[in-house]
Request: fold
Amino acid sequence: MADPSPSRAGLAYGIGAYTLWGVLPLYLHLLKAVPPAQVLSHRVLWSLLLLAAVVIATRRLRPLLAQARGRVLAMLTASAALIAVNWFVYIWAVANDRLVEASLGYFINPLVNVALGTLLLGERLDRLQGAAIGVAGIGVVILAASGGGAIWISLALALSFGVYGLIRKVAAIDALGGLTIETAILAPVALAVLLIAGSDGSAAFGRSGTMDLLLILAGPVTAAPLLMFAAGARRLRYTTMGLLQFIAPTLQFLEAVLLYREPVRAAQLATFALIWVGCALYAWSSIAVARRTAAA
Reply:
């Protein structure tokens, strides 16, 4: 009998990652006064310090440098660019009271994962999962045709993170090593942003102890869920990770409506309804497949 521990560990990592991402807006709302580019830069630099300390403490530096070459380095450069885009759009959305659109993007993302897993990884898609993608796609079309809102936020978040997760799944490097190299790639740009902000007097860091502490916390707040996500993605089917991702946007949507009182348009409600139906169909199919596999 196969050892179920990798799947169980992957499930724990996946649930933990998406729960932390689900409550991330609570942290980002405390940084609304900080320009999004500076928040992103602090996330990169403090994450790099934390990750570098872990790599050195665990004596992983030499193996890491040996892995991060050639094709792997090229893939991590692409994934670094994608996660930077994803972070910036998300930070901007929260700062500009667009958390509803952001949560919609992360509802779309699991279905993007399913499509990528099917088209590029050869993962099989049954009829119910195909129907789920179709129903959710209709919802997106309705929102796009309705005008207004900011569907670009939803699509940018869904596509950037979907492709990011795909690259991290197939790149031949572990979660810690991959994230360390990604943040190192982004670090020069992040440092330049903060130096420019410091030179023109717009830097948020150094103005108050509370704000400084919040910006320093960007390191663990950023690194922890990404490490858990990458570890889970390597242990689970990509479509299973897509199912778990429903946790994060559900929490984000509830925060947007109940805590921050963001308005929800009729077209958005219709889109959410169709996407939730698609998510339910996909979840039902995944559970059925898991039961059949266990029985076999």
Summary: The CA atoms of residues 204 and 259 lie 26 Å apart. The chain has a mean pLDDT of 86.
